[in-house]
Amino acid sequence: MVVGSVDWCATITVDEKFEYKPGSFNFGGSFKFHEQSRGWVVAVDADTGAERWKYETAGPQVSGITPTAGGVIFAGDMKGNFFVLDSANGKPVYTAQTGGAVAGGVITYLREGKQYVALTSGNVSRITFGVVGSPTLVIYGLGGTGTAPAAVESVSSHLPDPALGAVTFSKVCAACHGGKAEGGIGPGLTGLAQRMDFAATVQWIENPSAKMPKLTPSPLNVQAVQDVAAYVQGL
Ligand code: HEC
Description:
Blueprint: E1 2-7, E2 10-14, E3 29-33, E4 38-44, E5 51-57, E6 66-67, E7 72-76, E8 81-86, E9 92-97, E10 106-111, E11 114-121, E12 136-141, H1 162-177, H2 198-206, H3 222-233
Antiparallel strand pairs: 1-4, 2-3, 4-5, 6-7, 7-8, 8-9, 10-11, 11-12
The site of heme C has 26 residues, from helix 1, helix 2 and helix 3.
């Protein structure tokens, strides 16, 4: 059996006046990660539970792990590394930098006689430590020689469009601010315009406090920031 893990210390401080808040992370006080983070892929003997080998990853390891009958294991880490390990001893046989946190599933499939490996890279999930990156589907083919293409950035430009902003909001912001901006681990944004105007909202998204991840230039480009700012201004 092969499992991934996160190895990251944090200091949790008890707050006697702590109040439970539904939909939030409730640690009973404040929570601060230490700078150093890493992960492990560990192989254990399914009969005895004895550890066979372990492979240290540069970032926390939360992606799917895909063992194969071919004797290799596919997985990735939060620092964007995709890796192929030898099932027998955990030694890496191939690694690549995907450019975004690898936090989703990793699959392999056969099509017209050729084997492929597909994975997601880049994410905005609130449970993946604020790491972002343009959400991208990466597909490797066995025997290929090409390099990974650079992420495509939209260069279209138009007046701030709240309808487009609503789509961005549900994909990128809702995880923290709630589907209807009612609040979650981030504050509720209804009535935002009363305390923050359009320009200040754009500025905030471009330079948020340490509690909110920086989402520019990826996954949000200049236009996407304007659109989503127009949307939240109307809440
Ligand atoms: C990973 C969680 C997370 C994501 C994703 C996120 N935010 Fe936030 N946001 C926060 C937190 C936490 C705060 C409160 C920061 C503070 O108080 O320092 C915040 C604060 C804000 C504020 C200031 C609110 C106020 O009343 O002062 C705005 C505006 C905002 N976010 C907009 C957005 C928009 C728009 C998006 C999507 C493009 C977004 N946020 C994505 C966590 C998030």
